[in-house]
Amino acid sequence: MASLDLINVQKSFGPIQILHDISIEMQDGEFLVLVGPSGCGKSTLMNIIAGLEEPSGGMVRLQGRDITRVAPAERNISMVFQSYALYPNMTVAKNIEFPLEMRKVDKASRKQRVQSVAKLLQIEHLLDRKPRQLSGGQRQRVAIGRALAREPQLYLFDEPLSNLDAQLRVDMRTEIKKLHQRLKATIVYVTHDQIEAMTLATRIAVMKGGVLQQLGTPNEVYNKPANTFVAGFMGSPRMNLLKAHLDPRGSGLSVSVQAGRAAGVQIDLPPEVVPPALLAYANQPVIVGIRAEAVTLAPVGHVPSLLQRFFDARVEVIEPTGADTLVVLELGDQSFTARLEPDVPLEAGQTARFLVDLSKLVCFDAKTEAFIG
Prior knowledge:
Blueprint: E1 4-13, E2 16-26, E3 31-35, H1 42-50, E4 57-62, E5 65-66, E6 77-80, H2 92-102, H3 107-121, H4 136-149, E7 154-158, H5 166-183, E8 187-191, H6 194-200, E9 203-208, E10 211-216, H7 218-223, H8 228-233, E11 240-249, E12 252-257, E13 265-269, H9 276-279, E14 285-290, E15 295-297, E16 308-320, E17 325-331, E18 334-340, E19 351-357, E20 362-365
Parallel strand pairs: 3-8, 3-9, 6-7, 7-8
Antiparallel strand pairs: 1-2, 1-4, 4-5, 9-10, 11-12, 11-14, 12-13, 14-20, 15-19, 16-17, 16-19, 17-18
Helix pairs in contact: 2-3, 2-4, 3-4
């Protein structure tokens, strides 16, 4: 395996700039997921790493070696495509073996490697079949097996699960995670699915409009998003973002959630949950972020702890999901979602008392939308 360095990578098609100075350092054995909406540049960046596109500027280094202008075949990188890209006239064994044959690996070593990979991926019983005889999940395993057979320094996965149905995506996601844990391989993985990103990655690179918005662990990206775009994109349901105002309150601050003409909600923040950076925003508007699971239905007679506060809100929509219930709450002209227990005793139109965990509350600059604390 190997390290990968992207240094100020740029890409333009004519006057249109697709990638803007992307810099990422990957350590040996990392699983990096590039995530973002369609058109954000993640696949273009993947193609530059693979050598299928040339950057307009910047450098790509693999294990310290500059490969920016090196041909794809000379990069020692394997890629798994969204379309599987299997040869329809070849058996599964031949599909896995073919890249080794092209690299002039001797026949005995090729056969041994095919058997080893097939055993690892549990596709030994499929080796004599043709791709048309396989299910989508089986084809994806073969595509992964073909990449593994080469034993490259770096693996690239370009939205490999997007053609699979929902349950099979979950199963294959687990298999890919197990594979990484066994092989300790260095992997770059492209997806638009933020759940895939959260479950697979050791680090996530969130992109928008060709700009790297945040690079961090799943925990960092989820709990301390760099800006409101990351906050809204990562997580299901997305982080609640509410217009608010910060006011001084003793040695702490008070958050007043704006609610149009209706009465808003005012929540006092004790000094323990006020980061120093937030104090500079006293008497200013902010955007408050709170995850759905940080809001719960207040138990009758509950006495809130130092890091909890009550508030009342009107129930707008109830969405049972089986494992839990998503409840859309209304504060004047703003709404937000709470993740509550299944069979929660609420009805649409009802006003109820809720409890918010202040340790999970974050704030963003109202103008720049950047994370404050």
